[in-house]
Amino acid sequence: MFEAAELGHEISKEDYDAREPILREALLDAQLDLLEQKRQSVVVILGGVDAGGKGDVLNLLHEWLDPRHVTTYALAAPLGEDHGRPDFYRFWRALPPAGKISIFVGSWYTNPILDRVFGRIPTSDLDRHMRRAVLFERMLSSENVVVLKFWLHLSKKSKKKRLDELSKSDKTSWRVTDADWENHKRYDKFRKVSERALRESSTAEAPWIVVEASNPRYRDLTIATTLEQSIRARLPEASPTHANHAPALPAPIDDRRILSSLDLDKTIEPAVYSDKLPTLQGKLNLLFREPGMKKRSVVAVFEGMDAAGKGGAIRRVTHALDARQYRVVPIAAPTDEEKARPYLWRFWRNLPGHGSMTIYDRSWYGRVLVERIEGFCDTNDWMRAFGEINEFEEQLAESGVIIVKFWLQTSKEEQLARFEAREKTGFKRHKIGPEDWRNREKWEAYEHAASEMIERTSTEFSPWTIIEANDKKHARIKILETLVETIDDAF
Amino acid sequence: MFEAAELGHEISKEDYDAREPILREALLDAQLDLLEQKRQSVVVILGGVDAGGKGDVLNLLHEWLDPRHVTTYALAAPLGEDHGRPDFYRFWRALPPAGKISIFVGSWYTNPILDRVFGRIPTSDLDRHMRRAVLFERMLSSENVVVLKFWLHLSKKSKKKRLDELSKSDKTSWRVTDADWENHKRYDKFRKVSERALRESSTAEAPWIVVEASNPRYRDLTIATTLEQSIRARLPEASPTHANHAPALPAPIDDRRILSSLDLDKTIEPAVYSDKLPTLQGKLNLLFREPGMKKRSVVAVFEGMDAAGKGGAIRRVTHALDARQYRVVPIAAPTDEEKARPYLWRFWRNLPGHGSMTIYDRSWYGRVLVERIEGFCDTNDWMRAFGEINEFEEQLAESGVIIVKFWLQTSKEEQLARFEAREKTGFKRHKIGPEDWRNREKWEAYEHAASEMIERTSTEFSPWTIIEANDKKHARIKILETLVETIDDAF
């Protein structure tokens, strides 16, 4: 992989001086078009050997591009609020909005490579990290994020030479740290591990571009040219539509689905309810005071048909808790900061820290429910969402998040009764509008989509719990019981 | 202060049942109008004695209001990313956007009161915290945030009774913690300290409303009614304009100002520049590796006339640092999440954590420069900004932030030369547009506003450094020297 980057590529000063102004103008033009179209964003990963000149390249890009629309991140290690959240939290937080560019000098590659070089993880773990990177970048690419990965390479000899040169002068010796020399002793190991990492994570959507770094002019022109061409190549197209590429998912021939086979009329005696409710709330409260909770967090997802009783159920849960232990995130229209990024971004930004719970009142499943049914996204978009969501939840589970997902289902008749009751009661009238009536007409489509969603996204680390919700009291008790059991089991 | 809340206020069940539906509908109406007008937001502080029923009130508000537009925060103690940032960081982050409501059950009052009760701070510190709260709420109020502060009060006797009742039943005993009993021993001290805190922080904009909490029906109706009336009272008005209330600031009679009395032609020899630049960059780099830096952070502000060389100077600074040590925040048009909150919010959200630097390329001073000159805000708004900015920077300084502020000044002739050069060079053309030419026509107004800004916001904890910038090299060296000296002095 690195042989082609040891050929001694060079660009003369004259050649460079002739190309520079033309390239700068083209690059800037591409950036301004990117900004104006506001459809794509760009992620640049700058990896490679120490002393390969990452700092110089960074500086060049900030000078050649309009720096107001470029942000650089060095996120190798998690910091502050990153602790207690999944490893990819910090990368999600740093994704650029449409039109803008994020440069990562510490990325999702940094730690896996270092950990493998220093023997802290086996090769199988390195490969696992690379597969995760591939999935992440595939999602980014589908979500209109251009991913460009540069690897600055130096042969062992030229790297040693460069370190020596920098160390010699008083004015540049501060650029070489003890860690640089320590790493250099492991050059061969670094090379071997990086080669594997790059090979495993080079894909059609986001190939690695290895750049020989011994001649700064060659290095800079290569990177700037690639950046300009890559932005330009993605610009003219409209947002790619795959509407017809995805095969239709077959509906069950006998029309039997999970959600149409439920006994929705399960009830609970009011007296039993009054007894069980505070008991379960007490249990839930005590679970949040357990020492084990200090290293865990809870994500609770509430989905269901309109008027199925999500709000009332959520209040029965939060009443058991101290306000500092939970946050309810109602999913309404995204803000412009959210709209400009991949659809999962707004959920990542609200993930709970250790010891607390985020309750999502509707969630990322909107992608495979309302967006699917209303055609707000392409078929391919909601079809790939099943896999993206499972991957997202797996990352949550791996980082210690306890995930509980509820689907609240009423009968169509019960929904009608509740709609009518809402229209009659002054302080409930805001809960019912023309949109609810329109959705009701699509009852079967929602039931079909929800059934498929439950089937495709019930995993061992994040199963769905279906709540028969014609009786609100039954629903609330089953939800609290499930929460208490799941959290208890997790300890 | 608490006598009126020990009168034994009571509401009968019949009376409550008669009022409830009317009040709920009125409250919800007020909230929906708030949401629709999107001009004001509401901050509710819920303080008071343990067992006063904060949890119940919270639950009630979430049930009576549309909970999708209400967020509850319990921010007594700093968490995760709050560490290493000023104390008010977490409260700023939690401010609601226009149209929405934030409820604080742990607020800027919680820790000062606890610290005083437990003897960790003297009364003078409590008073200082209260003055800070008053300034904060005055700013919020001017920025269209309605601040409502409720204090739930119970006499010593009724508080004891309530704790006993809760403890007796299996179903509610979990609601009483050991800390509640510990605190109860200090009831008299709590009462005395709270009384002082409330008195010192009751203002016309945001008075404390003490609510007797022994009768839940009385408590709930009082709070809901007050909330409804307060939202309603602020709604019909347009955003208050004080344009004519503020006295004009006198210009110096002889027209001599700080910025018109500079020697702008200071230069530096190119050879000296080439020598000093890397030396200073090395020094800056080493300062960021000092152990002392682990508990400090740096905020650098770059302001100046158009084309004064801010971008080039910033790059000379960042080139000395590792990408994980700094962040450049260019101030362009605010996003909708930013526009919906007080103007300082977008700067708070970008404050650096320990060990790192945020460089603001233009800053909060836009309020007293472009917004003042272009009339984007009322006279009263930019006039109060001087005090608000000094208060903001004092909070930064107190929390260990090293603040360095640069004003880059060129002559009017030099600016013209640079504008013309930009128009001639392809890759610089994006840096010049009609707006720059328009601003140039207002040169004197900007010089006057900037002179006044420097005078009013140069403080011992955050002085301005004026940079004579006709010679770019001179400017860059003076900036690096100032940075190095200021950081070095701070250790």
- Quickly name the level 1 CATH class of the largest domain in chain A: Alpha Beta
Largest beta sheet of chain A: what is the strand line-up? 2-3-1-4-5
Overall 3D geometry of chain A?
A: elongated
Q: In terms of quaternary structure, what is this?
A: homodimer
CATH fold-level assignment of the largest domain in chain A: Rossmann fold
Q: Largest chain interface and its two residue counts?
A: A-B, 63 and 65 residues
Which band does the percent of strand residues of chain A land in? 5-15%
Distance linking N and C termini of chain A: 46 Å
Q: Compute the number of helices of chain A.
A: 19
**Number of DSSP strand runs of chain A:** 10
What structural class do you assign from the helix and strand content of chain A?
alpha/beta
CA gyration radius of chain A, whole angstroms = 27 Å
CATH-derived architecture of the largest domain in chain A: 3-Layer(aba) Sandwich
Residue windows where pLDDT falls under 50 for at least 5 positions of chain A: 238-247
Number of domains of chain A: 2
Q: Averaged pLDDT of chain A, please?
A: 90
Report on this model:
The structure is a homodimer of 491-residue chains. Chain A has 491 residues and is an alpha/beta fold. The first copy, chain A, has 2 domains: 232 residues, 3-Layer(aba) Sandwich (Rossmann fold), CATH 3.40.50; 233 residues, Rossmann fold (3-Layer(aba) Sandwich), CATH 3.40.50. Chain A is 49% helix and 13% strand. The first copy, chain A, is built from 19 helices and 10 strands. Chain A is elongated. The two termini of chain A are 46 Å apart. Chains A and B meet through helix 1, helix 2, strand 2, helix 10 and helix 11 of A and helix 1, helix 2, strand 2, strand 3 and helix 10 of B.
